[in-house]
Amino acid sequence: MIQDLVITLVYIGYAMGMLLTFGAILTWVERKQAALMSDRIGANRAYVRLPFTEVKIVWMGLFHGMADGLKLLLKEDFRPNTFDRFAYNLAVWLAFVPVLLVFAVVPFGGTLDPGQLIPPLAGWFEGRTYSMQIAPIDAGLLVVFAFAGISIIGAMLAGWASDNKFSLLGALRAGSQLLSYEVVLALTVLGLILIYGHVDLRAIVEWQSGTVLGFLPAWGIVVQPFAAILFLTASIAENKRMPFDLPDAESELITGYITEYSAMQQGMFMLGEFIEIAIIGALFTTLFLGGYNLPWLTDAGFLLPGGELIALPHALVVVLQLLTFLAKMALVCSFQILVRWSLPRFRWDQLLRFAWTWLLPLALLNLAVTALAVWAIG
């Protein structure tokens, strides 16, 4: 139906705009947060001058991201003399697009009733309601891992197609690192599936809308705190950021598998990395922080523990759910940047040993304990 298509296009536009905005703003957040952590001012030079005046709008250096994007668009695109042209160009899209596609299965709000939101269109929508999710499919978690696997291919293909020994070594590091930590991620998520009983991300969020012990929110971080630590650690490693940035360690490999990329192609790799920070924030929010849930907030309003309902307009409920999800995302993104500027880089052997001899056994132990607990509770 045309109504369904319109809502889907609105969701896609929202997701693209939100993720690209997050990616751009996070470049500024990283600079300013790193500056605050090291007692510096940080980015504060880029500005926009009001026409025909001497007034400069600085906004705490927020325009630095725009300046970077403009610089990358205008730079000359250098290519290596010997390279596989098709694979070289394809690798950029294989590394960038799957990061965006992951968000298609993430629920970013509750139930949307367009007729209540825009009363003049109530007759056209005929009472239809929609889940605030681009692709509400049952196997949401499986889709997440499928797209994550495609991004690994993009990184390895970029290094191989560049015909550069540093790029190839960076690609080999990226492949082994991403595969190692993806095993940890999968085992950690298996423990969550045992508790939630679903691989549908919307059902997982709805499961977390209850309470534990009568007063604690039934969020994943409450029922599986150890899994939350494992998941976030492995996710940061999947994003190839400090202290897990061995695939593009500047002191060893120049810039690793993207050494031979320049201009906007290099910019897409870098923007994809920042968007992946937002995607990790969205997944962690969905799996461990209750998604778009606020305590006692339902699609009708706040349902308090005593049974009293504080009814809210549908538009206000939708806005609260969207803002709640974005706030939780931003908090997790900020924490990832905090880790990036707090810890030193691992050595390569330490990085793999950390995955296989520490995180993997801990993930297996968490899975076994969770399975026993679920069996005991019945």
Total DSSP helices: 14
Low-confidence runs of at least 5 consecutive residues: none
| C-alpha end-to-end distance | 43 Å
Structural class: mainly alpha
Q: What's the Cα radius of gyration?
A: 22 Å
Reported for the largest beta sheet, the result is:
3 strands, antiparallel
Descriptive report:
The chain has one domain (78-377). The longest helix has 36 residues, at 2-37. The model has no long low-confidence stretch (mean pLDDT 83). The chain contains 14 helices and 9 strands. The strands form 4 sheets. The protein has a 3-stranded antiparallel beta sheet, with no helix packed on it. A two-stranded antiparallel sheet has the order 1-2. The chain is globular. The chain has helices spanning 2-37, 64-74, 85-101, 114-117, 122-125, 140-161, 165-196, 201-207, 220-223, 225-238, 250-253, 263-288, 314-340, 348-377; strands spanning 48-49, 56-57, 111-112, 130-131, 211-212, 216-217, 297-298, 301-303, 309-311. With 378 residues, it is mostly helical. 63% of the residues lie in helices and 5% in strands.
Features:
single chain, mainly alpha, three-stranded antiparallel beta sheet, two-stranded antiparallel ribbon, 9 strands, 63% helix, globular
Short description:
The chain has 378 residues and is mostly helical.
Write the layout of secondary structure elements.
Elements: H1 2-37, E1 48-49, E2 56-57, H2 64-74, H3 85-101, E3 111-112, H4 114-117, H5 122-125, E4 130-131, H6 140-161, H7 165-196, H8 201-207, E5 211-212, E6 216-217, H9 220-223, H10 225-238, H11 250-253, H12 263-288, E7 297-298, E8 301-303, E9 309-311, H13 314-340, H14 348-377
Antiparallel strand pairs: 1-2, 3-4, 5-6, 7-8, 8-9
